[in-house]
């Protein structure tokens, strides 16, 4: 009997490819999700503990069984420890991404970064000044060397706070100091969380959760912010540019190469190789019309923001794009890469290549990228992809691509406003724009793909709330047609007027998931302009389809920064109602913001609108 995939996804390309891959007898993430049912209730509630080998232990949520683990930890402690470790893993992932980029910057400064260069010297100098690096009369490589050293020090330093915290409003920084959650060294906070959650260390659930906020802040205002800033220095600060989205961006008559993951260090070199006249001629000699590079997930977002490279899909599309039979090679780096995709690729002709020294995958050829070999290795891989074109079989590209515009860095947004945030503030004060919402995060097979992102976005913009988005959410709204100037037809009258005057979409693509920090920087700039705290602004955040530990860290640093944040899936915390109460209510009186959990995007939109209107009223708007 034929399966119906309407509940799995709202995206037409995904539905058609799911049916096609079912006929190919290829298993996808949705089938594997169904095979896991029923999920472990203890794990879903955060009530299982495997932190030592006296266990594993679990707490009975109904009270008839164990109420303590072997060590004596109760539900509050176990849930808080588990959430703390989740935040630590997420913070480590994005912050380590930042470290990788700083190491490339250091190699460029040493003259050992073959193929890489400083593309935004002005931003290099501005950022260096923030780190106290002398820029007067010095060459870029000298400045870059000192800046890279200063950034590396941020990971394990002895100072009391991170450098980029200075961007936050003074009122917010004083609050962090008062709560003793001002982040110190990036690695220190993650290491301390792992120490605190070891058996016999921190057994105060409130203390654990506060350190979770500190750990998340070390990423949001540290590792992730460094990653975004250094990416701009090395590859260029994004500016608006046209692009295309959905699986229709693949081209039947061209060699198709997909980049997947999160680190632009690899994808930038692959892009240059794809543009090489030598490679294009090689492709034509083998019967193709050219070479087409496209992205999935956040590596694709990085290329979209800077070069307009098309996006074939988001997280839950990574298997589906292979089902087209049109992909000669998928090149991956790290994060959000399902180990299943190499197995899926064996059903077609696609070659799979992993490139990071810290990320290997079963069934993939491993070819490590480093600054000294990146340009040459990228050319080798593109050549191999071109040669694989001859091995194609049937090709199925079921849809036409949807136009979009991406590349709205903070600098681009402020530039569109005339170099100052005042016009945006004026529109908010006048009520033409009621407020702004950042919609971020992943796809999750527990939730209909893209439904949360698209529905929430539609409801917000039609109520005059400007939406900025990143990551998989940004791909979903691009496919839905919200990222072109003509999309103002979906906006309320005030937002339509403002966006029409500026010739911008009502939904602004701000980058990959590590670029969530661009939203923080913009929020801080608005708060500083109004001389208020971030928590006073008519703004909110949402992650309607989140799944990863990174998303837990992102949500925690947004709330700790004062941004009310609505989650779709419930985190694994319901085993402790004390933890639930603190995160969804109690934090309001601590950091000026809380989490909310609402899987229905229609209801989530109402929560966000109510929050924004309450903040407007408090500001006298």
List keywords for this structure.
Rossmann fold, Substrate Binding Domain Of Dnak, Chain:A, Domain 2, 24 helices, 3 domains, 621 residues, six-stranded parallel beta sheet
Structure commentary:
This protein has 621 residues and is of the alpha/beta class. The protein has 3 domains: 75-235, Substrate Binding Domain Of Dnak, Chain:A, Domain 2 (Up-down Bundle); 247-391, Rossmann fold; 409-618, Rossmann fold, CATH 3.40.50.2030. It contains 24 helices and 16 strands. The protein has helices at 12-23, 29-35, 41-44, 75-110, 121-130, 140-155, 170-179, 186-196, 205-235, 264-274, 277-285, 297-307, 340-345, 374-388, 410-416, 422-430, 451-461, 471-479, 493-502, 516-530, 549-560, 577-586, 588-591, 601-618; strands at residues 48-49, 57-58, 241-245, 255-261, 291-296, 311-313, 327-332, 351-354, 365-366, 402-406, 435-439, 465-469, 507-509, 539-543, 565-567, 595-597. The chain has a 6-stranded parallel sheet with strand order 6-5-4-7-8-9. The model has no long low-confidence stretch (mean pLDDT 96).
Provide a brief overview of the structure.
It is built from 24 helices and 16 strands.
How is the quaternary structure best described? single chain
Order of strands, widest sheet: 6-5-4-7-8-9
Number of domains: 3
The CATH architecture classification of the largest domain is 3-Layer(aba) Sandwich
Instruction: Tell me, briefly, the overall form.
Output: globular
Helix proportion = 40-55%
Strand content: 5-15%
Number of strands: 16
Radius of gyration: 24 Å
- As residue ranges, the low-confidence spans are none
Given helix and strand content, the structural type is: alpha/beta
Tell me the name of the CATH class of the largest domain: Alpha Beta
Q: Would you tell me the overall average pLDDT?
A: 96
Major β-sheet annotation: 6 strands, parallel
CATH fold field value of the largest domain: Rossmann fold
Number of helices: 24
Q: For the record, give the distance between the C-alpha atoms at the N and C termini, rounded to a whole number.
A: 58 Å
């Amino acid at each position: 009997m034929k399966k119906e995939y309407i509940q799995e996804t709202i995206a037409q390309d995904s539905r058609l490819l799911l049916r096609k891959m079912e006929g190919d007898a290829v298993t996808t993430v949705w089938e594997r999700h169904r095979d896991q049912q029923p999920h472990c209730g203890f794990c879903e509630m955060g009530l299982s503990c495997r932190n030592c080998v006296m266990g594993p232990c679990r707490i009975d949520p109904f009270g008839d069984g164990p109420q303590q683990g072997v060590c004596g930890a109760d539900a509050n402690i176990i849930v808080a420890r588990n959430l703390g470790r989740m935040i630590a893993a997420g913070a480590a992932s994005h912050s380590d991404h930042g470290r990788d980029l700083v190491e490339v910057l250091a190699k460029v400064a040493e003259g050992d970064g073959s193929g890489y260069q400083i593309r935004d010297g002005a931003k290099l100098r501005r950022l260096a000044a923030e780190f106290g690096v002398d820029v007067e009369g010095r060459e870029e490589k000298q400045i870059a060397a000192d800046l890279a050293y200063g950034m590396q020090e941020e990971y394990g330093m002895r100072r009391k706070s991170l450098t980029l915290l200075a961007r936050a409003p003074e009122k917010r920084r004083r609050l962090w100091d008062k709560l003793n959650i001002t982040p110190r060294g990036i690695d220190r906070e993650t290491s301390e969380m792992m120490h605190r959650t070891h058996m016999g260390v921190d057994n105060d659930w409130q203390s654990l959760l506060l350190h979770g906020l500190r750990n998340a802040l070390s990423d949001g205002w540290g590792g992730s912010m460094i990653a975004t800033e250094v990416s701009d220095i090395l590859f260029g600060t994004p500016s608006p540019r046209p692009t295309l989205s959905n699986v229709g961006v693949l081209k039947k008559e061209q060699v198709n190469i997909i980049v997947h993951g999160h680190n632009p260090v690899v994808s930038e070199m692959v892009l240059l190789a794809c543009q090489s006249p030598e490679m294009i001629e090689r492709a034509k000699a083998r019967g193709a019309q050219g070479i087409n590079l496209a992205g999935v997930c956040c590596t694709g977002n990085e290329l979209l923001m800077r070069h307009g490279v098309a996006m074939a899909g988001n997280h839950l599309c990574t298997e589906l794009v292979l089902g087209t039979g049109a992909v000669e090679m998928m090149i991956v780096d790290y994060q959000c890469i399902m180990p299943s995709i190499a197995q899926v690729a064996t059903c077609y002709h696609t070659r799979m290549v992993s490139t990071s020294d810290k990320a290997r995958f079963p069934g993939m050829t491993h070819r490590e990228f480093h600054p000294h070999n990146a340009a040459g290795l990228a050319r080798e891989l593109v050549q191999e992809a071109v040669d694989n074109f001859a091995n194609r079989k049937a090709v199925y590209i079921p849809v036409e691509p949807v136009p979009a515009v991406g590349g709205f860095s903070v600098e681009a947004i402020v530039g569109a406003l005339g170099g100052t945030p005042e016009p945006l503030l004026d529109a908010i004060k006048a009520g033409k724009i009621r407020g702004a919402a950042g919609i971020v995060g992943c796809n999750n097979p527990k939730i209909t793909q893209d439904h949360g992102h698209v529905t929430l976005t539609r409801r917000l913009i039609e109520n005059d709330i400007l939406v900025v988005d990143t990551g998989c959410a940004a791909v979903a709204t691009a496919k839905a047609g919200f990222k072109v100037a003509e999309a103002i037809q979906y906006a309320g009258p005030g937002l339509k007027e403002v966006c029409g005057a500026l010739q911008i979409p009502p939904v602004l693509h701000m980058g990959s998931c590590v670029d969530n920090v661009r939203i923080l920087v913009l929020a801080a700039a608005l708060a500083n302009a109004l001389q208020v705290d971030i928590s006073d602004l008519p703004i909110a955040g949402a992650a309607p389809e989140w799944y990863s530990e990174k998303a837990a860290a992102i949500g925690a640093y947004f709330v700790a920064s004062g941004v009310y944040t609505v989650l779709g899936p419930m985190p694994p915390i319901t085993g402790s109602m004390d933890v639930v109460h603190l995160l969804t209510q109690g934090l309001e009186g601590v950091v000026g913001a809380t989490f909310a959990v609402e899987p229905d995007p229609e209801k989530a939109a109402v929560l966000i609108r109510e929050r924004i209107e309450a903040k407007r009223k408090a500001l006298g708007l």
